[in-house]
Every structure is written in structure tokens, then in C-alpha cells.
Amino acid sequence: MAVTHAVPKSDVVAELRRRLQPSSAYSDPRRDGDASQPCASLWRPGTISEWLAPPYGSGAVTLAWRSLAEALPSHGVCALVDCSRCCLAPAIAAWGVDLQRLLVIRPTSSREAWWAVEQSLRSRGVAATCAWVEHAPERMLRRWQLAAEVGGGVGLLFRPIAARREPSWAEFRVLVIPLTATSGDARRVRLEVVYRRGGLGGSAQEWELDHAAGDVHVVSPVADSTPLRRAARA
Amino acid sequence: MCTWFPRWPIQRLYAVQPALRRQPLALFAESAQRLRITACCPQAERCGVRVGQSLADAKAMLSDASYQPATSEADRTALRELALEAQRFTPLVGLEDAAEPESLFWDISGCPHLWGGERPFFQAVTDYWKSRRYTVRLALADTVGAAWAVAHYGPTASLIPSGREAAVLANLPLAALRLPKATLSRLGAMGLHRIGDVQKLPRKSLPSRFGAELLQRLDQAFGEQPEWFAAERLQEPLVVSRTWDEPITDQLAVAIVNRELLHELLAQVAQRSCGLHEVRGEFQTETKTVPVELHVTEPTLDEAHWNELIALRLERQPWPGGVLRVTWMALRLGVLHRQQGTLFAQDHAADQSRAVHALVDRLTSRLGAGAVLRVEIRPDPQPEQAVALIPWHQPAANEEAPFVAEQWRSRPMRLLPVPHPIEVMPVVPDGPPLRMSWEGRSYRVIHQQGPERIETGWWRTEDARRDYYRVQWDDGTEVWAFRDRRSGGWFLHGFFD
């Protein structure tokens, strides 16, 4: 006699919903051919990224948010876990993020901040979670990565350069070094992908942050002023 | 019947803080970017303080008075409580329909005979307010409009015999009809000052000349048109509790009881076809009672969600000894948000909105409402005053300024709450910086933009007069610093992260 297992209707509907659901709410820069933004090809929903930069005034936050703003889905809030209580949220929104979507979380201790980051990453209502993390144990980083997978948003962790030596569960790690060359409203930073899952790190580029236009773009390398023939004779 | 509490915001503060009676008192609120006096006591008024005057002028005129911020919502709430209190005389007492109410309306039909007639009833009400140290003006008339008019503009403690309203009202000023200022000034310009003056005019011409409200108010006062008011109602509180003879110290046992009580409470809330919005728990221990208050962004009957929020809150709640009694009380109910579901096409926006609400509730339960915030732009040029972070669930303020991205890109991503003094070597005195010292290290200034002059806040205690520079140091760091034009000192105010 054949045994038939009765599957609850709710499970069937849930499974059909899952199949019908688009695989990602994020725009895929690789598919869209958007190569004008730093790390445009690296943003992937359900992952976290680490931005290593000097502690003050490096331009890393500007670069990261301008880059992410292009890839953000139309729904969901952006959570800022601001332990230092110094983050000026409208200045972040000015780089392409809707101010109404910014949820500012101000925990009073590192432990509360870690918990808030995990909750935020785990929520399906959060498109991006941004946090300044001086130090976090490895197991916490692993928990965040798993939480991001559940939530489907992206995580941006701003960390000191010294954290480069620590293990990471991030999808990619970039190092941002501010450069002194600047003119008018623009400033330059050097962005180096120090690690990328899949082992394709190591590339570096110079980026210009245009505060007046609210845009960032790659600085084209200037050609060597020495003529080729002359250089060959030298 | 109408009970008017003249200068109600002042009287409310006197009731809360009796010590304020010892000195002149004035209340202020922000209006058109200036702090203005909204109410003052007679003593302050005698010294020249006037409603509408700027706070600075009032302080210049009367410096030894107490100046307190006005809180119209608290005034309304307190008046509502008085309306409930007045239900000892009649079950139907409500607030007047005004932006800032100061009067209570009473429907006393069928009640005065319990006190021996209208006059003893009237006297009992007068004595009651006097015993509570409130200054009131009462009037009893056939209509709400007539009672309001006589209470505000008629003789003190007036009991108008039934059918005699017309004679009394005719001599009262037109302001007694609760008309807008614009209508009153139009009437005044025509030489019409008393209600009797308007009664002499043909009725048909009144709406076209002075607006429909004049005729409506006249008819309401004379009983030609009905006028209703919303009576405040005492609701039976939704409370569930458990009591033990011996104190319980086991946290797990308390958690189980919490779950059971919440289940009972939500069942009671569901019977009213509402969702639970705010709840208060009280844990009576051997030494004291520990209160816990929780609220959610949207009213809900989701038991699992409430259980999670309670567990998050109690996780960090210290218990002084064992628990003898646990009580949960519904503080606020709300309309449940119901939406027709779809079979396959999921509403992602609605799902995400629900997920955000759930996240905000969780974060608020553990971190507190002051840690889960949204951003509001304020129309203030001073950087530290231009942004207000308010609890996520709090409604938006009316004075929110528009967000202009170009302006905010010239501001640093990290703004120090208090500007940090910094050593600077300027090119010339009062000129742009050449070197700066920060955290024991000296930096050469490679590039600077500015000055951006900000002079503001003179109406606050300390005004700001600053010349801001966007400065790049020799290691590439970009900072926002300013020279204080009063002291000449330099301050670091932010970093362009």
C-alpha cells in the first residue's frame, strides 16, 4: 500500500512563494554594468564588508555610502549603529541615501552595540547596517555574517587599520588611505581591496570625492611625461 | 454648565509645584523662531509681562520671575483628568473644542435634584473647586454656548434662570460667541461690539457679510441649533495579576507567569477588537515595587512578539529579593492594522515595514526609546542645533526644515557634540590656520576652505559667532574647525570621515 505524506497547505504556499520571490532585491552592478562606483561589483545582499581606515577624517564613510547608495533597494531602512554618538546622519544622507530611511541606534556600550548590529543585520526590514567597530571577537563577526545571510541586507563595518591582522568573515575588505592631493571641493583617497572572498583582492585605485557634485569617480592615471622613444634609450 | 479655569496652564503648574506661587510665573514657547510668552500670572502681568511678548523682553522687564516652558499637551491631559474627576457630580463632562482648552462643559440633566436643586448643586461644584485651590468661573445656562459666554464675560458664578439667556447675552461682547479674531475685527470695524447689536441686523445678511460661523454661534448660544461636546469616559482598566504568599526568586518561574498573564491580557484586549499598544508591568518584591513599561510601534495582539519584548526588558532588570506579586496592565490600546493577504505575490513593502517595526520594538525594549532614533532637520544654522534625533515612534515636529543635500555635503560626517579646543597657528591674526595640534601631534595644513561665517543663537543663553574652515592636514585627514569670534580661540568640531 502506498503511503502518502500530507503536506500542510501553508508549507506548499510558502514554498511556492519562495520560488516566485526574486533572488535579490539589490541591483547587480555586474549585470547593470555600473563600474563607476568603488566596489560596485562587490556589493552582494546578505554579506558584510569591512572598510579599514584611519580613525578620523579619512573619507572612507563618504566613499562607502556613496557607493552603496547606488545599489540600495527601494525598500527597507538603513541602520546606523553609532556608539560614539557623533555621527551626523544628514551628512550621510546627502550622499544619496533617503534621510527618512535612516534609523540611528545609539547603544551605550560595546556589548549593546554588538547586539544591535546583529539584530539589525538579521531583520528583513533593514537594507543596510552600518557600524563603527573598534574591536569585536571573531565569533561575533561570524554571528554577524550569519545574521546578514538571514536578513538579506548588507553590512558595512568601519574598522581601524590594525584590524587588518584580525580574522574576518567579511565578503570583502578594503583599505582606504586619504591622500593629500586636493583642489577646490574635491579630495582624493586611495582604495585598495585587500581581501575578497574568492581570492581576487589586491587591486588599488585612486578615487576623487567631489563634495560639490556629491559624486565620486576614479582618477585616471596620468601618462608618463617622458616620451617612449627617449625612455627606451635611457 | 461651563467651568472656566482662567490662565489654566499657570493654574496647572501651581497644582503640580505649589512653590511656584511664591514668585511671578510666566510660560514661554517657540513661535516664529522666537521664544514668546504664552501665559503669565497676574503678578507678572502687573509688572508689565504680556502674552506674545518675546522672552528676552520679558526677562529684561522682570528678571526675578520664574520662566517655564509651556506644555500644551500636559495642560490638555490635566484638564481631561479634571473632567474625569468632575464625574462625581454628573457623568457627562468634557473639554471645550479649542486648540488650547481652558473650560469644561457639563451636561447636568437629571443631576441637580440629587443635591437639592440647581442652586445647591452649583454651590457644591463651586466649593469643590475652591477646596482644590483652583480659581474658576462657573455659569449655568440652558445652552453650552450661553454657559461659555457668561462664564467668560458675564458676572462671576452666574446661574441663569431657564429662558432668560437672551436678556443676559444681549449685553455681552461679541467675543463671548467664540468667534475667530478676523470676524471680530470685521464686526468691530462696523461698530458692532455687543451680541445685542448683531441681533438687530437681518439674519439673512449675516453669513455673506461676516461668515457662516457667526450665525452658527448665535444659534448655538440661543438654543436654535444643537451643540455637542465629547464627554470624557472612564474605561474599565485591563489588569491581570498573580500573588504568592511566599516570594519567588526563580527567574524562570517569573517568566512563565509573565507569559500566562500576557496571554490573559491579550485575550481581554482582543475582546475589545483592539491591539495592545502600551503595557505596564509591576513586580512587587519584598522591599519595593519595580515598574516596567513597554510599548510597540503598531498595536498588535502578537503574543510571541510581546513575550520577546518582555524577556528583552527583564533580561537586564535587577530584582531586589523575591517577587510577591506580578501585575500587567494595558495602558494604551489601538486599532489593529489588518490587510487582505495575497496568495503568491507578496507585498514586500508591507513585509519590510512590519519587519522594521518589529526591529524597532526589540531595540527599544532593550536599549530604551532614547537609543532608537530618527533624524529631523531643524531650521537652525548652528550645526549642533540643526539636527534633532527623536525616538523613532514619536510623531514628526511641525517645524521640520527641508533637507538640502548640497548644504549637508559641506558638513562633516562626524560632528563632535561639544567643540574641542585646539591649538592653531594662523597665517595672520584672525586668519586661516597654518598648523594645528590634535591629541599631542602637530599637523601642517595642506589645504583649507573658508571661512563660512555662522552667527546665530543670540536669543538663546549663549550666541554663536564662528568662522568655520574645512581643513586638510598633511596626512590627508580632513577636519572641520572654527575660530570663535568672541574669544579668538580655535575649536575642532568634526571630521570628514
Name its key features.
heterodimer; A: alpha/beta; Rossmann fold; globular; B: 497 residues; six-stranded antiparallel barrel; five-stranded mixed β-sheet; 20 strands
Note down, in words, how this protein is organized.
Chain A contains 7 helices and 9 strands. Chain A is α/β, with parallel strands linked by helices. Chain A has one domain (37-220): P-loop containing nucleotide triphosphate hydrolases (Rossmann fold), CATH 3.40.50.300. Chain A has a 9-stranded mixed β-sheet, sandwiched between helices. In chain A, strand 2, helix 4 (89-93) and strand 3 form a beta-alpha-beta unit. Chain B is of the alpha+beta class. In chain B, the strands form 5 sheets. Chain B has a 6-stranded antiparallel barrel. A 5-stranded mixed β-sheet of chain B has the order 5-6-1-7-8, sandwiched between helices. In chain B, helix 6 (144-153) crosses helix 11 and helix 13 (303-314) runs parallel beside helix 14. The radius of gyration of chain B is 30 Å and the shape is globular. Chain B starts with a strand and ends with a strand. Chains A and B meet through helix 1, helix 3, helix 4, strand 3 and helix 5 of A and helix 14, strand 13, helix 15, strand 15 and strand 17 of B.
From the alpha carbons, calculate the radius of gyration of chain B and give it in angstroms.
30 Å
Total E-strand runs of chain B: 20
Report the major sheet of chain B.
6 strands, antiparallel, barrel
Report the radius of gyration of chain A as a whole number of Å: 21 Å
What oligomeric state best describes the polypeptide chains here? Answer: heterodimer
**In percent terms, what proportion of residues of chain A is strand?**
25-35%
Level-2 CATH architecture of chain A? 3-Layer(aba) Sandwich
Helix content of chain B: 25-40%
The overall pLDDT average of chain B reads 88
